[in-house]
Write a structure and sequence with these properties.
The chain is built from 2 helices and 13 strands, in the order ααβββββββββββββ. It has 227 residues and is mostly beta strands. The chain has one domain: Sandwich (lipopolysaccharide transport protein A fold). Strand 9 and strand 10 form a beta hairpin. It is elongated and about 105 Å long. The N terminus is likely disordered.
Length: 227
């Protein structure tokens, strides 16, 4: 997997019951024949390369259907007593609302009956990509964020970038000029910066109008020699 440091922004709600399913074997149905049980185990093994997490959609989504987030990593650890999961080694997250890559990802699950994602912390070469839909039906606007660390809070939908963060949208770039600068991107892709920063606004070169020719400088005629 190509390592990229991209941006910004977020983890979907995680169900603790599914985390338990990762560490505890599922009950065996005694009504199944040995061959059917072996087939079921084999199919489960083929799907273990990525952890699929289904949960209710976060605030701001116009859908009542659960949102599925897939987390891929070299290693995963789940602690049901602390309601948390740790993913490390080439972590990649795919979600309908964003994509993320980092070296380490820690997710915290809320306690209680309606369990879901409380907070997610990505660390190490963090890259996040989020597309903002065009209200007029045009192409979405893509924002790419890079930082040493990103913290997503499910209650607000905000993503906080620290560690010399930078965000690019189109050709424009917003870069922190201090390692202490903090950038916050909300669920509407609105950016707020606390601390010194530099903004680069770039414009593409203007194209020449069709049919328009550049006037040439008339050359001075060379006098003919006298007879």
């Amino acid at each position: 997997m190509k390592r990229v440091a991209v941006s910004i922004v977020l983890i979907a709600n995680v169900m603790t019951a599914q985390l338990h399913g990762q560490v505890a074997p599922a009950p065996t149905d005694s009504s199944k024949s040995p061959k059917k049980r072996e087939k079921a185990v084999a199919e489960k093994g083929h799907k273990s390369s990525g952890d699929k997490i289904s949960a209710p959609a976060a605030t701001g989504l116009q859908s009542n259907e659960p949102t599925t987030t897939e987390i891929y990593a070299d290693e995963a650890f789940f602690d049901s007593t602390k309601n948390m999961g740790i993913f490390s080694g080439r972590v990649k997250v795919t979600d309908p609302r964003f994509s993320l890559q980092s070296k380490k990802l820690t997710v915290f699950i809320t306690k209680g009956q309606n369990q879901g994602l409380e907070k997610a912390v990505a660390e190490g070469d963090v890259g996040l990509v989020r597309d903002r839909p065009d209200p007029n039906g045009g192409a979405p606007t893509r924002a790419v964020g890079r930082a040493d660390k990103a913290v997503y809070t499910a209650a607000t939908g905000d993503v906080e970038l620290t560690g010399t963060p930078r965000v690019q949208e189109g050709m424009n770039m917003h870069v922190a000029t201090s390692p202490d600068t903090v950038m916050i991107i909300n669920q509407n892709n609105q950016l707020t910066t606390h601390g010194p920063s530099r903004t680069e606004i770039r414009q593409p070169p203007k194209e020449e109008t069709k049919g328009e020719t550049t006037p040439s400088v008339a050359s001075t005629p060379t006098p003919s020699p006298k007879p």
